[in-house]
DNA sequence: CCACCATTCAATCGAGTTCTTGATTACTCG
DNA sequence: CGAGTAATCAAGAACTCGATTGAATGGTGG
């Protein structure tokens, strides 16, 4: 095998990973799976695709070795093949967000001006948590919290936020996090907490970013 | 704009980056540009593509904001749009290498069994360099060395290696590095140095990985 | 200002992708 | 065993992508 042939074959394989990330729907599937494993049906519902189409995309991802599946009774559960895949997805998304002005424009027009709710970054949160200055809440759905969450965080899904507000401290800052930078849950939580008179900020990034940064994650026993 | 529409549009833009990485030839172009900027003609020659085809791929990359170009006289020079792009490429390549057994097979069959030449990783090199135990040589072509190299490394292109062997210390280990994990230059250098009776190992990864790790890089003034 | 050269553009063809629809498989539960 | 359900498979229509060819552009140097 000569050099040219070797390179062609290796780059061909590397490009398979790129191909897997080349479809918007597959990117979305990976982002969802970065939270926790899911069934095909759930993913189809969440992405608005037909079942068959969802299944097809998942098989492309499996072909690229980015996801794995496990059958349990009637349901097939898909999950990321390794945490490195989540980190890769975040890297692609971050490069896109950094370089592509159109994404910036879209985020602004959808989230409104986010500048009011200043976000805290992960290293800052770690420091302030050590000093006991903050309370961390996870506003994702309970099953995502159960699969993995920031150590010390309390599960407060948006649906029960209003009932829980009274139990949150008014003398400390509440830091809310959710799925990632394009997830609105934390913004919504911060907005509501502020309306209730608490000090609240969102965390830059969500659970996948936290995990990718190598910071400690806990999960509930099944 | 509703949530579904927002997601579709954002993922669409993110997938553009994936698309850019979805062709073997474009992956190769990015890897080459991770070393230093190049003209279209040089890239066409290096990849074995026609000029028009090379130009077309470069424009796809520019469309995804991964590369930039600059015209100087007759020649157009392309370069990565940001170091983050090099890091992204490395991340994609590493995930591919980790998950895809076929790549492992290809590397083995092309490099032969590499296990004889134990490689040193970057943090280990930094330690041993501080203790003065090693000499670092850069075996890439001189223009790539000029564009960026490991601080303290000496430029020893393979073409002049044999003449330079006599000037390398026999009481310290020589660490050779080149373009990256799929580059054969460092292996070849290590092999020849060992035949000459020196202690030699290669560095895990090449210059782009070194830079991506945030380790110090120097460049010659133009 | 003309000949030349690096690069890009435009048009084309074959190959590959995406999504849909309807059939099929594999498993569970009554 | 047989009805019901989650998921996959198979095949086709519309679309996109990749490489080639030949022409066009824009800058250089005689």
Low-confidence stretches of chain A: none
Give the proportion of residues in helices of chain A: 40-55%
Q: Order of helices and strands of chain A, N to C?
A: HHEHHEEHHHEHEEHEHEHE
Shape of chain A: globular
The CATH architecture term of the largest domain in chain A is 3-Layer(aba) Sandwich
Question: How many strands, what sense, and barrel or not for the largest sheet of chain A?
Answer: 4 strands, parallel
Any idea how many domains of chain A?
Answer: 2
Termini gap of chain A: 50 Å
Largest interface: A-B, 54 and 55 residues
CATH topology title of the largest domain in chain A? Oxidized Rhodanese, domain 1
CATH homology superfamily name of the largest domain in chain A: Rhodanese-like domain
- Strand arrangement within the widest β-sheet of chain A reads 6-4-7-8
Mean pLDDT across residues of chain A: 92
Radius of gyration of chain A from CA coordinates = 19 Å
Q: Mind telling me the CATH class of the largest domain in chain A?
A: Alpha Beta
Which structural category fits the helices and strands of chain A?
alpha/beta
Share in β-strands of chain A: 5-15%
Number of helical runs of chain A? 11
Number of strands of chain A: 9
What is the chains' assembly state? homodimer
């Amino acid at each position: 095998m000569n050099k040219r042939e070797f390179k062609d074959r290796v780059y061909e394989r590397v490009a398979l990973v790129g191909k897997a990330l080349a479809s918007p729907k597959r990117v979305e599937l990976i982002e969802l799976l970065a939270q926790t494993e899911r069934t095909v049906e759930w993913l189809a519902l969440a992405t608005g695709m037909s079942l068959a189409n969802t299944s097809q995309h998942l098989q492309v991802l499996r072909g690229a070795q980015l996801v794995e599946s496990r059958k349990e009774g009637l349901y097939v559960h898909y999950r990321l093949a390794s945490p490195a895949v989540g980190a890769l997805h975040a890297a692609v998304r971050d490069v896109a967000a950094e370089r592509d002005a159109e994404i910036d424009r879209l985020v602004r027009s959808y989230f409104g001006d986010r500048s009011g709710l200043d976000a805290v970054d992960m290293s800052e949160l770690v420091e302030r948590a050590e000093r006991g200055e903050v309370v961390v809440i996870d506003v994702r759905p309970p099953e995502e919290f159960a699969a993995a969450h920031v150590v010390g965080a309390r599960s407060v899904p948006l649906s029960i936020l209003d009932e829980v507000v009274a139990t949150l401290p008014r003398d400390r800052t509440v830091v809310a996090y959710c799925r990632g930078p394009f997830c609105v849950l934390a913004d919504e939580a911060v907005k509501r907490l502020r309306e209730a008179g608490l000090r609240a900020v969102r965390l830059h990034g969500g659970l996948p970013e936290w995990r990718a940064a190598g910071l400690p994650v806990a999960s509930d026993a099944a």
